[in-house]
Amino acid sequence: MKKSLFKNTHTGSDFNWDHLRVFLAVARTGRLTAAAARLKTDHATISRKIARLESELKTTLFDRSPRGYAITAQGEKLLAMAENMERLAIGAAEEIGGVDAALSGKIRIGAPEGFGSYFLAPRLQGLIDQYNDLKVELVASPNLVSLSKREADLAIVLSRPSGGRLFARKLVDFELCLFASHDYLQTHAPISNEEDLTNHRFIGYIDDLLYAPELDYIQNVHPHIETNFGSNNLVAQLGATLAGSGLCILPTFIAHLYEGLMPILPDRIRLAREFWLVTHADMRERSRVKAASQFISDEVRKATNVFTLPKNV
């Protein structure tokens, strides 16, 4: 007979269900301090509740080390059960509370820093205006966010995820082109072909800090050029380009915002990439997630022209 994780524990009426909420936070963050920040409490309280839960279940849920809390095999079993209970609790709140309750609270959106900062951020007030009780959080980061760890409720990513309980649909195809500031071009050697590029400075990503292969642009431009100014952050790259530090591969949906940026060899250097809208299977039917996903899709569709460079440039 299969052994139960809850053998020899208190009865259901004695079990403290709030401890499962704490357990989920620690399992998803791997650290007491991060879990405490997420739950708006202190790490001592988190530690005490995890210890109490382990005592109630008579098992070890986490291996402790200076690097954090690593979930054990027994903890993995509990994680699956706890996530099911969380999903049921959220569903019950929406079902009983109705549409108004379902479209209140917090929605956290993860996005690459360029798309998040320059496309989403100026538009998200429209989502807030549409749902007055909805609190919107935008994680615009040069790193991936984890939906399974609930770092975000939905995310925009550069490629379709493989594996995991994730649901993805393509948001939009977009182009990147080579740009430089008008002032830079006025004071440096002219560029009439790809070979001329080797005489110029380049701005780009730091190779060993690339979080996605889709960001490895330089080799697509010319095999014999190197980055003179590197940053893991696209916003910093844009700032350096505007200041005249060199040439940079930039998405057209950002470059079109700045009249001082000029496309370089636009008929020859155009890189194609994709944005995907991703939700966790447990969250995709939640009203808040569906509303935010639809809003983002609508905004992208209305602004389709900014994601490509006009053919006659």
Corresponding CATH superfamily of the largest domain: Periplasmic binding protein-like II
Write the CATH architecture name of the largest domain: 3-Layer(aba) Sandwich
CATH class of the largest domain: Alpha Beta
> Radius of gyration over alpha carbons?
24 Å
For the termini, the CA-CA separation is 71 Å
Secondary structural class: alpha/beta
Q: Based on CA inertia axes, which overall geometry fits?
A: elongated
Task: Give a verbal description of the structure.
Helix content is 38%, strand content 22%. It has 313 residues and is an alpha/beta fold. The radius of gyration is 24 Å and the shape is elongated. Mean pLDDT is 87; it is low at 6-13.
In short:
38% of the residues lie in helices and 22% in strands. With 313 residues, it is of the alpha/beta class.
